[in-house]
Amino acid sequence: MYFNQKVVWITGASSGIGEALVFALAKQGAKLILSARNENTLQAVAKKANLSKENYLIIPFDLADTSLADSYVQQIIQKFNRIDILINNGGMSQRAEAIATTKATERNLFEINYFAQVALAKAVLSIMVKQQSGQITVVSSIAGKFGFYLRSTYSAAKHALHGYFESLRLEVEKNNIKVLMVCPGKIQTNISNNAILADGSKHAKMDESHVDAMTAEECAKKILSAIEKNKQEILIGRKEILTVYIKRFFPKMLYKILKKQSPY
Ligand SMILES: NC(=O)c1ccc[n+]([C@@H]2O[C@H](COP(=O)([O-])OP(=O)(O)OC[C@H]3O[C@@H](n4cnc5c(N)ncnc54)[C@H](OP(=O)(O)O)[C@@H]3O)[C@@H](O)[C@H]2O)c1
């Protein structure tokens, strides 16, 4: 029961991996802060997780605008008096060729998948440094390890997370703050439905490759196990995660494999 009584802030808590994390953490007696855009959806998740009022807080906001991040942290401190873990999970994918993707869509993808994670981490760090303890988990992707068709900006934002948070890990270790990078492969969620096209509109289709992928529940279990074990990085998924090792040892071979893959 590592998470019992721990104060855990989860972004992207309304769906997929984030929702599965809420259910798993609620079972272990954690105190949870749920964030995503829609308050009603988050309330429904809290209800389904059987969370009692004193054990959860809902902070709805758009990851594209984190200007109030410090005030969210104050709300959390007022209610729970500390923050043990931030799970920077919320994110949005892309299904559009680089040439067609508008500048506005590129900036939006970076706000949601990179700048928001940085802003929230900095906001909680002020508290974690005072506490001299804390854990920051960042949900990246195998797209943070290599580029792929129709994912140019998404993949770039996920790569950027590694540069930022690997640097941060070195800097905050002295404060007893740990950083975990999570790289899922394909997980059965609404990620492809919610992915955006070149002009920012929704892809609104479930990719074939996600249909029989690992479940969000299994993924959440592996994330929590990695947090508990203080791991620095984990790959989660089925055979698709082998691509990360192929890239490391045989990069040209990976390129040949990727060329033949469907983007969906
Ligand atoms: N599923 C996969 O195969 C896969 C693979 C690699 C990495 N990942 C990563 O895993 C994380 C979770 O994704 P998922 O698979 O669980 O997908 P999902 O089911 O689409 O969930 C995405 C979550 O992010 C939130 N979100 C998206 N845009 C937001 C915004 N602008 N402001 C606030 N919240 C926003 C959504 O909430 P609202 O829409 O309700 O606001 C939702 O809770 C993401 O970072 C994703 O990149 C997923």
3D structure, described in words:
The protein is of the alpha/beta class and 264 residues long. It has one domain (7-239): Rossmann fold. The protein has helices spanning 16-27, 39-48, 69-80, 103-131, 152-172, 191-194, 208-211, 216-228, 242-249, 251-259, and strands spanning 7-11, 31-35, 56-58, 85-88, 134-139, 177-184, 187-188, 214-215, 233-236. Strand 4 (85-88), helix 4 and strand 5 (134-139) form a beta-alpha-beta unit. Bound molecules: NADP nicotinamide-adenine-dinucleotide phosphate. NADP nicotinamide-adenine-dinucleotide phosphate is lined by residues 12-18, 36-38, 41, 62-64, 89-93, 112, 139, 141, 184, 186-187, 189-191, 194, 210.
Q: What layout of secondary structure does this protein have?
A:
Layout: E1 7-11, H1 16-27, E2 31-35, H2 39-48, E3 56-58, H3 69-80, E4 85-88, H4 103-131, E5 134-139, H5 152-172, E6 177-184, E7 187-188, H6 191-194, H7 208-211, E8 214-215, H8 216-228, E9 233-236, H9 242-249, H10 251-259
Parallel strand pairs: 1-2, 1-4, 2-3, 4-5, 5-6, 6-9, 7-8
Helix pairs in contact: 1-8, 4-5, 9-10
Bound molecules: NADP nicotinamide-adenine-dinucleotide phosphate.
The site of NADP nicotinamide-adenine-dinucleotide phosphate (NAP) has 30 residues, from helix 1 and helix 6.
